[in-house]
From TrEMBL, chain A:
Transmembrane segments: none annotated. It comes from Murimonas intestini. Pfam families: SBP_bac_8. This is Aldouronate transport system substrate-binding protein. Residues 23-52 are annotated as: Disordered. Residues 1-20 form the signal peptide. It comes from the Bacteria. Residues 34-52 have a biased composition (Low complexity).
From TrEMBL, chain B:
The keyword Transmembrane applies. It comes from Murimonas intestini. The chain crosses the membrane at residues 12-36, 79-98, 110-130, 142-163, 184-206, 258-275. The keyword Cell wall biogenesis/degradation does not apply. It comes from the Bacteria. This is Carbohydrate ABC transporter membrane protein 2 (CUT1 family). InterPro entries: MetI-like, MetI-like_sf. Keywords: Cell membrane, Membrane, Transmembrane, Transmembrane helix, Transport. One of its GO terms (cellular component) is plasma membrane. Belongs to the binding-protein-dependent transport system permease family.
Length: 577, 290
C-alpha cells in the first residue's frame, strides 16, 4: 500500500514538473520569435540615419540625440533593478531621482536589492520572466543569455547616438568583441571608459621603506624582484618577520604578479576569482590559446612567492586570515604591505585608521615582470559593468516605446551630461564648474577622499556618485573623480606602463560552455590548491613539478585547451581575426 | 541515612562542571565580543584590540543607528512579520497536525507521505519564485514573507506526535457529552497542548525574526525589508569584494555592524528564558512519544 502511495505521489509530482517545463519552453520560443522580429526591425532601421533629431522625428513625443538632453513630453516610468550598497543605502528622496525627473521627465519604479545578493535575485527575476525592464550593474550577462529573457542589445544600439559616439570616438570595437555570445551578438550595454585607470595595487609604508634605505624614486619601474629586494631591506632593517601580511588570501597580489609573469593566478574565498579563471592565455604570434599554468613562466611565478614565504617575508597567516585581520595588522604597524584599491586607501586615510604615529602610506604601481611593465587593471580592459534589458520591456512598451527607453538610457548612462549628472549632481547645487570645465564639489559635501570631514556625503545624502549610475565616461569625468593623489598615481602608471593586449573571447554555445565547465571546475580547483602548496613549501617546486604537470594533464588541461582552440577557430570569422 | 556519592561520581561531577563552564564560555564569547565591539571606537576595533571589554568606550555608534529612520522602519517590519507570521504558522501547523495525528482517518495514509515528501524535496528557487510572484501574485507583499513556508514539516511532525500522545479517552468522553470535532480541538486539545504550542511559537518566532531569504527574494521596495536583510547586507558586504575598476568595497564600520547585530538579537534573546520551561517539556514529549 505504502509503495503504491509513494508511486502515486511521484507520478503527480512528475506530471506537475512536466507541465511546468511545457510552460517554460513555450515562453522561451515566444522569446525567440520576438528576437527575430527585432532583427528585422533593426536591419530595416540600419539604412536610415539613427543619430540626431530629424525634423521628421519631432512628433515622437520626446527629444533625444547626440549631446541633446533626453526629454519626454509625457511623464514616463520605467521599472528597474537597483543594487543597494550598504555604504549608501537607497532613499526615495534622494536628489538624483528628482534631478532625472526634472531633466528627462522620467521616473523609476525600483526593485531594490542588497548588492550582496544582487545576482541571485537577478537570476530569479530574469529566469522567471518577471524582471524589471532595466537591469543595471551586471558584470557578466552570460548566465542569462540562454534564458531567452534578455534582449540582444547589439541589435538595437544603432538607436543610441551617444553610445555610438563613444564607440566610434574611443575606438571601442575591439573591446566590445569581448562580450560577444556564440550567436555573434552581445546582451549587455557595457559601461565604457575612454582610457583604463584604477584597479588594485599595493599600499606600502613609505616611512618604513625609506628608513630601511630603499630608494623609492624608481618605484614605477620596479620588477617584482626589485620589490623583493626592497622587502628584504625592510626585513633586515626592522628585524621583523612576516612584514607582508596580505588580505584577500593573497589572491589579489597573485593576480597582480600573474599578469606580468604571463600566467593566470589568484582565486580566494575572500574576493573570488581575481584572475585565475580557466588558466588560458592567448599566444598572439601563433594565434591560439594555451594553458598557462603548467609553463616555465608559471614555475618562475611560484618560485617568487615561495621565496618570499621561505624567507619569512610573507606572513603564513595570509592564506587563512580574513581581510579584517589583515588590515588590523597593517593598522597596528605589524605589517607594511597590503593589497588594496584606491577607495580602500582613501577610507583608511579619511577615517584615520592607522594606529602608528607618522605612518606614511604610499600606493605603489604594480611591479613589472618578465612579460614587461604592463598596466594591470580589471581584466575587461576599458569595459565596465553594464545594463541588461529584459524582453518584458519590448513586450510591454512596444517597439517605439522600447526605442524611446533606449534613448533615455543612452542619455543617462552614455552622454557627457548624463555622466556629470549621475556623478556630481546638479550644477550650482552640489558642485560648480569653472570656464575650463573643471568640476569642484561643494565644500560641505564629502565624496571619496574629497572634502574630508564635510557634514554631508554625495552618495549617502544625495544619491549621486553611486555604482548603479556613475561609471564609465571620458577622461575628463574620470579624472574629475580623482583626488590629486589618485591623479598622481594614475599618471605614474600611464607614464611607465603599457596596455595589455586584449585576449579574444571564446564564443562557446550553451553545450560547449557546459562541457568546458565540467573540466574547468576540478582542474582549476586543483591548480589553485597546488599553487598554495607550492608557495608554502608543502610541495617542492623542483621535485614535484612533473607530477603536478601530469596531474593537470589527467584533469584535462590539454583537452580543455584543444576544445577552446577549436571553438576559437570556428568563430574566427565572427571575431574578424 | 544519606548515601555518599561515590568517588567516581564526584570526579564526574567536577569534570562535567568544568566542561560545561568551558562550553558556556565558548558559546557566550561571541556575544560578549559583539557587545564589546559595539561600545568601542572604530579605530580600536579595526586594529583588532577589542577582545572582552570595550576599548575607548563610546555610545556614538548607537546614537548613529538610532538617529536613522530606516532602522526603526526595518525593525517595525520585523516585529510585524514575526507576530503575524508566527500566528499564522502556529495556527496552520496545529490544524494540520491534529487530523494527521488521527491514524484512523481514511485519507491519513495518503496525506502523511504527501506532507513528509516536502521535507526532502523542494521545487527549487526559481519555480518557487514563479509560484509566489506570478501565480499567487504575491510579489512585494507581506504575504509573500509570511505564507510560503508557513508550515514547517519538521514542526508539524513534532506537533503531530504530541497530539498522538494525548489520551484518546479524553476526546471520547467529550464526544459522548455532545462536543463536536472543533469543540474537542479548541476546548480540550489546545489547552492541553500549551507546552508544544509554546515550543512552536518560539521556533517560528526565531525563524521569522532571522528570516532574510524570503523577503530578499519576494520583496521589491526597500520600505518593506525586515531588519535581518539589512544586517545581512552589512555583514556580507564586508566579505564581498567587487573586482573591477569602479569596485566599491564596504566601508561600513565594524562597530556599526556589531551594534546593529546586538540590537537585533537582543529582543529574541530576551524571549528565551520565559519560554524555556515549556520548551524543554514540549521537545521531550514530542520526542518520546514519536
Amino acid at each position: 500500500m505504502k509503495k503504491r502511495l509513494a508511486a502515486l505521489t511521484m507520478a503527480l509530482v512528475m506530471a506537475g514538473t512536466l507541465t511546468a517545463c511545457g510552460g517554460g519552453s513555450e515562453s522561451a520560443s515566444g522569446g525567440k520569435g520576438e528576437t527575430s522580429a527585432a532583427d528585422a526591425a533593426s536591419s530595416e532601421a540600419a539604412g536610415t540615419d539613427a543619430a540626431g533629431t530629424d525634423a521628421a522625428e519631432n512628433d515622437l513625443g520626446y527629444e533625444y540625440g547626440e549631446d541633446v538632453t533626453f526629454h519626454s513630453d509625457e511623464p514616463v516610468q520605467y521599472t528597474m533593478m537597483f543594487s543597494d550598497h550598504e555604504n549608501y543605502p537607497m532613499k526615495d528622496d534622494w536628489r538624483i531621482w528628482s534631478a532625472i525627473e526634472e531633466k528627462a521627465n522620467v521616473t523609476f519604479k525600483l526593485t531594490s536589492v542588497a548588492r550582496t545578493d544582487y545576482n541571485a535575485k537577478v537570476t530569479a527575476a530574469v529566469n522567471s520572466g518577471s524582471a524589471p525592464y532595466i537591469v543595471p550593474k551586471i558584470y557578466d550577462s552570460k548566465p542569462y543569455e540562454d534564458s531567452g529573457q534578455i534582449i540582444a542589445v547589439s541589435d538595437w544600439v544603432q538607436y543610441m547616438p551617444n553610445y555610438q559616439k563613444q564607440v566610434k570616438e574611443w575606438g571601442m570595437e575591439e573591446d566590445l568583441k569581448q562580450m560577444l555570445a556564440s550567436d555573434g551578438k552581445y546582451y549587455r550595454l557595457p559601461g565604457m571608459w575612454e582610457s583604463v585607470a584604477g584597479g588594485y595595487s599595493l599600499i606600502i609604508r613609505k616611512d618604513v621603506f625609506e628608513a630601511a634605505g630603499v630608494d623609492m624614486s624608481k618605484e614605477a619601474e620596479w620588477t617584482w624582484e626589485d620589490f623583493y629586494d626592497a622587502l628584504k631591506k625592510v626585513q633586515e632593517h626592522t628585524g621583523k618577520d612576516n612584514i607582508w601580511s596580505d588580505q584577500f588570501q593573497l589572491g589579489c597580489a597573485m593576480n597582480l604578479a600573474a599578469n606580468v609573469y604571463g600566467v593566470k593566478a589568484g582565486n580566494s574565498a575572500d574576493g573570488g576569482d581575481w584572475g585565475l579563471q580557466d588558466g588560458m592565455k592567448f599566444d598572439f604570434e601563433k594565434n591560439e590559446f594555451y594553458f598557462a599554468d603548467t609553463t616555465e613562466d608559471y614555475k618562475e611565478f611560484l618560485k617568487y612567492f615561495n621565496k618570499l614565504y621561505k624567507e619569512g617575508i610573507l606572513d603564513p597567516e595570509t592564506f587563512t586570515q580574513d581581510s579584517q585581520q589583515a588590515q588590523a595588522k597593517f593598522f597596528r604597524g605589524d605589517s607594511y604591505v597590503l593589497s588594496s584599491n584606491y577607495q580602500i586607501l582613501s577610507d583608511i586615510q579619511s577615517q584615520n585608521k592607522m594606529q602608528v604615529e607618522d605612518a606614511d602610506l604610499y600606493f605603489m604601481t604594480t611591479p613589472s615582470g618578465p612579460k614587461g611593465n604592463l598596466k594591470v587593471s580589471s581584466a575587461a580592459g576599458r569595459l565596465e559593468n553594464g545594463i541588461v534589458i529584459t524582453k518584458n520591456a519590448l513586450d510591454d512598451l512596444g517597439e517605439e516605446g522600447f526605442i524611446k527607453m533606449l534613448r533615455f538610457i543612452d542619455w543617462l548612462w552614455y552622454s557627457d551630461e548624463g555622466h556629470e549628472l549621475t556623478q556630481w549632481g546638479v550644477e550650482g547645487e552640489t558642485y560648480t564648474k569653472d570656464d575650463k570645465g573643471n568640476i569642484t564639489l561643494n565644500s560641505d559635501i564629502y565624496f571619496n577622499g574629497f572634502n574630508p570631514g564635510a557634514s554631508k556625503q554625495l552618495n549617502v545624502d544625495y544619491g549621486f556618485g553611486g555604482g548603479v549610475f556613475a561609471y564609465g565616461g571620458n577622461v575628463d569625468i574620470q579624472l574629475s573623480k580623482f583626488t590629486d593623489a589618485e591623479k598622481e598615481w594614475n599618471e605614474r602608471i600611464n607614464a611607465n606602463k603599457v596596455n595589455q593586449q586584449l585576449t579574444p573571447p571564446v564564443l562557446a554555445d550553451e553545450m560547449q560552455k557546459e562541457d568546458l565547465n565540467l573540466i574547468k571546475v576540478s582542474l582549476m580547483d586543483y591548480v589553485n590548491t597546488a599553487a598554495l602548496e607550492f608557495i608554502t613549501g608543502k610541495r617542492d617546486i623542483d621535485k614535484d613539478w612533473d607530477s603536478y604537470v601530469s596531474d593537470c594533464e589527467s584533469k584535462g588541461s590539454t583537452k580543455y585547451t584543444d576544445q577552446v582552440n577549436e571553438i576559437f577557430n570556428d568563430t574566427k570569422d565572427i571575431l574578424g581575426m | 541515612m544519606k548515601i555518599k556519592p561515590s568517588k567516581g561520581y564526584r570526579t564526574f561531577q567536577v569534570v562535567n562542571t568544568i566542561l560545561m563552564i568551558l562550553v558556556i564560555i565558548i558559546t557566550l564569547y561571541p556575544f560578549v565580543y559583539l557587545v564589546a565591539q559595539s561600545f568601542s571606537s572604530d579605530v580600536a576595533v579595526s586594529s583588532g584590540r577589542v577582545t572582552v571589554f570595550p576599548i575607548d568606550f563610546s555610545l556614538e555608534t548607537y546614537k548613529y543607528i538610532l538617529r536613522d529612520n530606516s532602522f526603526f522602519k526595518f525593525y517595525g517590519n520585523t516585529i510585524f512579520y514575526s507576530v503575524v507570521g508566527t500566528a499564522i504558522s502556529v495556527f496552520g501547523t496545529a490544524i494540520l497536525a491534529y487530523p494527521l495525528s488521527k491514524s484512523k482517518l481514511r485519507l491519513n495514509k495518503f496525506f502523511t507521505p504527501f506532507v513528509v515528501f516536502t521535507m526532502y524535496f523542494t521545487g527549487g528557487m526559481i519555480p518557487n519564485y514563479i509560484l509566489v510572484t506570478q501565480w499567487l501574485g504575491l510579489a512585494d507583499s507581506i504575504w509573500a514573507v509570511v505564507l510560503p513556508g508557513a508550515i514547517s514539516t519538521f514542526n508539524l511532525l513534532l506537533m503531530k506526535s504530541f497530539f498522538t500522545g494525548l489520551p484518546e479517552e479524553l476526546e471520547e468522553a467529550a464526544a459522548m457529552d455532545g462536543m463536536g470535532v472543533y469543540g474537542v480541538f479548541v476546548k480540550i486539545i489546545l489547552p492541553l497542548s500549551k507546552p508544544i504550542l509554546a515550543t512552536m511559537t518560539l521556533f517560528y518566532l526565531v525563524g521569522m525574526w532571522n528570516e532574510w531569504f524570503g523577503p530578499f527574494l519576494y520583496l521589491e521596495s526597500r520600505d518593506k525589508w525586515p531588519i535581518a536583510l539589512w544586517v545581512r547586507q552589512l555583514v556580507e558586504g564586508a566579505n564581498q569584494v567587487d573586482i573591477g575598476s569602479t569596485a566599491e568595497a564596504s566601508s561600513v564600520q565594524a562597530t556599526l555592524k556589531s551594534a546593529t547585530m546586538v540590537l537585533t538579537s537582543l529582543p529574541i534573546i530576551c524571549v528565551y528564558p520565559f519560554v524555556q520551561k515549556y520548551f524543554v517539556q514540549g521537545m521531550t514529549m514530542g520526542a518520546v512519544k514519536g
